[in-house]
Specification:
The protein has four helices and nine strands; from the N terminus they run ββαβββββααββα. With about 180 residues, the protein is an alpha+beta fold. A seven-stranded mixed β-sheet has the order 1-9-2-6-7-8-5. The protein has a two-stranded antiparallel ribbon with strand order 3-4. A hairpin with a 5-residue loop joins β3 and β4. It is globular and about 60 Å long. The N terminus is likely disordered.
Length: about 180
């Protein structure tokens, strides 16, 4: 996703060091940097199961290390590689990391959920699949990523989910329609 017209992103002056964290001024997120196009696939809603749980286009992130962490993770896109039409070096969305599975226990369906091309899978013999669900897009903000799960400290209130519904009055709707027609 790209920024809406007229919106200019600030540089990375809203991200702080973990040692500078002040709960009155900052939000702290557990974050994971992922290369594109996989980062977009993790936060893009694909389907809802019979229990109402939402899953992304990619539901398993392969990592070399296990993690005991369970809960929301802020998915950030790596600064490179850069793909046309995809954001790099920004926050993309929240997902719930709900389980971890050793690669040696993967089923063919698990491999499909990694989105790793078939020709590359045979080379991956060690590691873990981090199971993700409940993707929610956030407004893209510039970040400096790190390896593994890390604490991302950001200006309070800056990282927000995109609204799913909006209520507007008739006058506002007419203004929006005029903009669309241009």
């Amino acid at each position: 996703m790209t920024s809406p017209p007229g919106i200019t992103k600030k540089r990375n002056d809203m991200q702080y060091s973990n040692k500078d964290y002040n709960p009155e001024k900052h939000d702290r997120w557990r974050a994971l940097t992922v290369k594109q196009p996989y980062a977009n696939d993790l936060v893009a809603e694909a389907y809802k199961d019979e229990n109402g749980i939402v899953y992304g286009e990619k539901t398993i992130e392969v990592r070399s290390k296990n993690t005991s962490y369970r809960g929301d993770v802020l998915i950030c896109s790596a600064a490179s590689p850069v793909y046309p039409g995809m954001e790099s070096g920004v926050t993309l969305g929240l997902v719930e990391l709900y389980d971890v599975k050793p690669i040696k226990e993967f089923t063919p369906e698990d491999w499909e959920n990694t989105r790793i091309p078939k020709e590359k899978r045979a080379k991956i013999t060690k590691g873990f699949g981090w199971m993700m669900r409940n993707p929610r897009r956030v407004v893209e903000m510039p970040i400096k990523g790190q390896l593994g799960i890390y604490n991302l400290v950001y200006t309070k209130g800056e990282i927000i989910q995109y609204p799913r519904k909006m209520v507007i009055d008739k006058k506002s709707w007419e203004q929006i329609k005029k903009q669309i027609e241009k």
